[in-house]
Amino acid sequence: MHLAWALHPIAQTGLLAVGLGACVCLFITLELALMRSVRIWQKKIYETLEVSLTETSASMKELEGRLREVEERSGTVLTPVPKSGLNFSKRSQALRMHRRGDTAEQIALALGLPRNEVTLLLKVHRIVLQHY
């Protein structure tokens, strides 16, 4: 009967307390290890992003320098070419307005398009109609 002490309520409560304490200790240890791992990964990610940002910044400065050189050699400032505003619906609107008798200037003003695009559209339209 040497296990009789294990059936005593105080012994059972003590063993339960020791087991619960061990679980809490393991949980805290695991939580600390997880937090340490997260900090390490965050540091690595931060360092990687910092290196990428530095490289990108250096590339941008190099490209700016090359652009300045090209502008200086050509004597002009390069500006981006504006995207054409003539999509399918504007094209059909322009042709409808032309059939009503509006001029290229009026169509361009009403649709917010460059006059030369409207003029080109009307010329192409006339050429296509002559072939049919």
Structure keywords:
132 residues; mainly alpha; Arc Repressor Mutant, subunit A; 4 helices
Explain how this protein is built.
- This protein starts with 8 loop residues before the first helix and ends with a helix.
- The mean pLDDT is 86.
- Helix 2 (88-100) packs across helix 3 (104-111), helix 2 packs across helix 4 and helix 3 crosses helix 4 (115-130).
- The chain has helices at residues 9-74, 88-100, 104-111, 115-130.
- The chain has four helices and no strands.
- The chain is elongated.
- It is 78% helix and 0% strand.
- It folds into two domains: 8-74; 88-130, Arc Repressor Mutant, subunit A (Orthogonal Bundle), CATH 1.10.10.
- With 132 residues, the chain is mainly α.
